[in-house]
Amino acid sequence: xxxxxxxxxxxxxxxxxxxxxxxxxxxxxxxxxxxxxxxxxxxxxxxxxxxxxxxxxxxxxxxxxxxxxxxxxxxxxxxxxxxxxxxxxxxxxxxxxxxxxxxxxxxxxxxxxxxxxxxxxxxxxxxxxxxxxxxxxxxxxxxxxxxxxxxxxxxxxxxxxxxxxxxxxxxxxxxxxxxxxxxxxxxxxxxxxxxxxxxxxxxxxxxxxxxxxxxxxxxxxxxxxxxxxxxxxxxxxxxxxxxxxxxxxxxxxxxxxxxxxxxxxxxxxxxxxxxxxxxxxxxxxxx
Length: 287
Prior knowledge:
By secondary structure, the protein is α/β, with parallel strands linked by helices.
């Protein structure tokens, strides 16, 4: 159930933060992987996001939450320059990834996407075999050594190998929705990225498939860093170590844009937020 359909409840009972996570160490002990400063994301003359400044940390799951239209998807698509493919899009500010400003014109966005992979809201396997779906990126990048082993490892990491190992030549489109999404995750991690971005990866899946995707993030964050967009407050509480709450600001002439309101450890966001707007959102009072 998403927060949009929840009745207003007290903060203490609104969200149960998953207890299987290890306690968050102090931020100064975390290893930074993204340093985002004063980021504006603009389509034509309209800003989708303004003034976002935050850090993202290595080997954690970071959730981006907020109401529809606050720029969550636009924001994470900035992190691997996926928005560059949209005519009229531009960014201001900087996104430093492992110390390098990936917004610089001299940086190849294709190379960025090699190290910062993405999984979309709806499963989008290629009309190819299960094997070729996973091997596709490896072949494109020339990572053809030990191809069979690389494909098996990615499918194993995505908790799909045991289900498909006897039918690797079957079409990826023949899989169930949940399996297709895990296939897309396998395709993303096969090229060994540092970060995996996920834009509402379970919104089209049933509860069992959703649980499998969430478990994958929990199991794989020791090897990858995840940044996910989710409308599901319970999901954010279950899987995320850090949570960023975005909301909508308005200006003259009907202008609307997304802004970062609060960013902190997930437990704090859901049990003791610093901003009243955050509390109102996570308890279902608006959104």
